[in-house]
Amino acid sequence: MSQLFLQQQKSAELNPFPHIAVFANRKIQHIQFNSFVKKISETIGIYYITEGKFEWVINNRVFSLYPGDTAIILPGQEFGSEKGFLDPGTLTWIEISPQVFTPAGGLLLGAWSGIPENESRAIGKLLSLNGISVLSKLSGAGNMFQQLQKEIMDREIGYSVRVNQLIDELLIHIVRHLTRQNNLQRDFPQTFMKLEQALRSNLDHQWLVEEMAVIVGLGTTAFTEKVKNYTGFSPLHYLINIRIAEALKLLKNTGKPVTDIALETGFYSSQHFATTFKKLTGYTPRQFRVNNKKNT
Amino acid sequence: MDCIITIDIGTSAVRIFAFEMNGRAIGFMKGSYPTFHTEAIYSEQDPEQVFITVLYVLKNFLTEKINIRKYKVAAICFSAAMHSVLPVDKNGVPIGNAITWADNRGKKEADDLKKLPIAKTIYDATGTPIHPMSPLIKIAWIKRHDKERFNKTGKFIAIKNYIIQQLTGECVIDYSLASATGLFNIHKLHWDSNALDYAGIKADRLPMPVPVFYSALHLRKEYQVSLGLPAKTKIITGASDGCMATLGAGVWGEGKATITIEQSGAVRVAGNKMIRDSKQRFFNYLLTEGYYVSGGPTNNGGVIFEWFAKQFGVFNEAYGMDDSVHNLIKDAMQAPAGSGGLLFLPYLLGERAPLWNANARGAYFGINIKHEQKHFVRATLEGILYEIYSIGKILEEHRAFSTLSINGSFASYPLWAQVIADMFGKPVSVNNSYDSIGTGALLLSQTEMGIHRSLEDAAKTVTLQASYHPNKNDHQVYMKYFSVFEKLSHKLKDEFEEIALLQNL
């Protein structure tokens, strides 16, 4: 494939794709100082190595990348080389500007993408939760990049649809691979523990089943069934257990207002909290707090 | 129609059963809660999450299986995992998480105590081996290493006590669960002063011990309303899970033993005397006053076979552990009894009975050029069962038994059951462990309500079919290899120490 470097607003090829900030395929033959210094990324960058060896710092961690490896850089992550330049080799990459990206993993790709909003959120959650920046030997990614380049450059009929589809495909490919790399999909209890930790450390997040399923690396149907089997609860009911348990502790151990506790533990209102709490315990949160003090 | 509900607060899940008064099962429901390992040797649970899970499952169970079919709940009886410690403040509010039986933080405290002459006196009085699992050791650890938490603690209770306290307002511990704390004099039925001294506490910092039949408990009004249960619903304190399982397996009096293999495993016998093992290898827990369930626990049960499956098994679908285990067992059947002389020491998690050595590690031994994968699979299975046999063998020196009832998800695989029968050279009958804990609680409730005259009579109602008969030839093969297995387990003691030190676990 021939070399190219396309940049939004500078390269006409990218006019139909305002969400693509950069698309490039480069063979580095000479070292150019200060061409690749560490800076905070504003885009979702996907880098695929075809030749050579690169040493990069992504999100404060050093990675060695070899041919076949793929690096994923998220907005807000620092990215570059300690040496400030790219080593000799060949690499191809795309930088995508998402419509919304929050550090907690809120991701909205934009209208161009065929990935539905809930799945887009799930992808964002997974990418930011895992803190995994490099996928080694991501088979298929190289081919997708080649097709992307061909579609962008050849402009054959339907090319704009194909380009967007290929980006979606690439993201899906990465996310699926990521969940499989993270867990060998053998030990459910162990993987479920990872999910449990993710839920607990983001308890105020409005979790979707899709987001939970992607952490475990299963489709939502298989995931729901597996969780039901393992815990006796549906995923969302299991989450309610954790929420109420945390709320109980806060009610007992702090003087925080009930509304704050409700929001902190992920209920969308104090009303919602009170109803759920009472249904289970027979007490409203306020009664529970008073009663708990009285009792003692 | 009246019914009895049993609630088992187990290591990883709560399991609720309902029975008609005559013992016919109505239904079952479970809900799980996580165990946290903030450090490798730590094992903790969130008491509030356990409580909420119990409450949630109970509520769903009552709604879906009981109230809808117009059953009236006559009694609720509890059982629970042993050895948990939950420090609560003077208001009964938990201070941090509960520490479960599997927690090993008190290794040094246990070793220190074992060296003292008082250790034997404490073991004889409490019946519980000196081990990090024991609440005695855990409390000593908290006193030494977490002074602030220790000072704030009003009472050291068990998870089960906490759940019952939440539901009824009463903080009591049944003799059965108390007898697994290492702090309770199982002969005199009160907290043991020597053990209290070592733990560094007075008896007023423990819950009040009550008989397993104790039922002067009443559901709090709010729970009567939210659960839809009348005020007069009888709440029976109940016993520990191990004692319930033994009762539920119909093991009462001489001549019988029961083997449980879940993730971990145990061999148990029951009788009216404590087993005073000079090496303090066996536990003696009270089922009720004057009645002891004795035996030995192993760390390395089904968890080891699952470890093997995870590393070397085939997974045709995501998280298809059951399927993978099932296929491996089929492979194992292709290898002969004794695995062609390939031996496996299953001590991947250290070992409790009979070695009581946290530093023990696993090994394959005797590999020759003819051994194939199937031999390794079978050797792994046999190694786990040699270990079970080694507990049974020493146990039999104290109390003879001629029949075995086995339960638990692993023990009930036909191949496992057959190998157990062959190793012991005794007939084996199978029942389901969750059923046997539930059945035990049912029998205890029925006895409390006067349906049976005594627990002994109740145990007699359990009938089991001998489904596996020992094969004499295979028994002899296993006995020859077992002698090597046993020697290796002891011979490697120094090397276990050395390698554990290097592995730094």
Structural write-up:
- The complex is a heterodimer of chains A (296) and B (505).
- Chain A is built from ten helices and twelve strands.
- Chain A has 296 residues and is of the alpha+beta class.
- Chain A has two domains: 4-182, Jelly Rolls (Sandwich); 186-296, Arc Repressor Mutant, subunit A (Orthogonal Bundle), CATH 1.10.10.
- In chain A, the strands form three sheets. Chain A has a six-stranded antiparallel β-sheet with strand order 1-2-9-4-7-12, with helices on one face. In chain A, strands 3-8-5-6 form a four-stranded antiparallel β-sheet, with no helix packed on it.
- The longest helix of chain A has 24 residues, at 159-182.
- In chain A, 38% of the residues are buried.
- Chain B has 505 residues and is an alpha/beta fold.
- Chain B folds into two domains: 2-243, 2-Layer Sandwich (Nucleotidyltransferase, domain 5); 250-430 and 471-505, Nucleotidyltransferase, domain 5, CATH 3.30.420.
- In chain B, 41% of the residues lie in helices and 21% in strands.
- Chain B contains 18 helices and 22 strands.
- In chain B, strands 16-17-15-14-20-21-22 form a seven-stranded mixed β-sheet, sandwiched between helices.
- The longest helix of chain B is centred in the C-terminal third of the chain and has 26 residues, at 373-398.
- The radius of gyration of chain B is 22 Å and the shape is globular.
- Chain B starts with a strand and ends with a helix.
- The mean pLDDT of chain B is 95.
- The chains are: A alpha+beta (296), B alpha/beta (505).
- Chains A and B meet through helix 4, helix 6, helix 7, helix 9 and helix 10 of A and strand 3, helix 1, helix 9 and helix 11 of B.
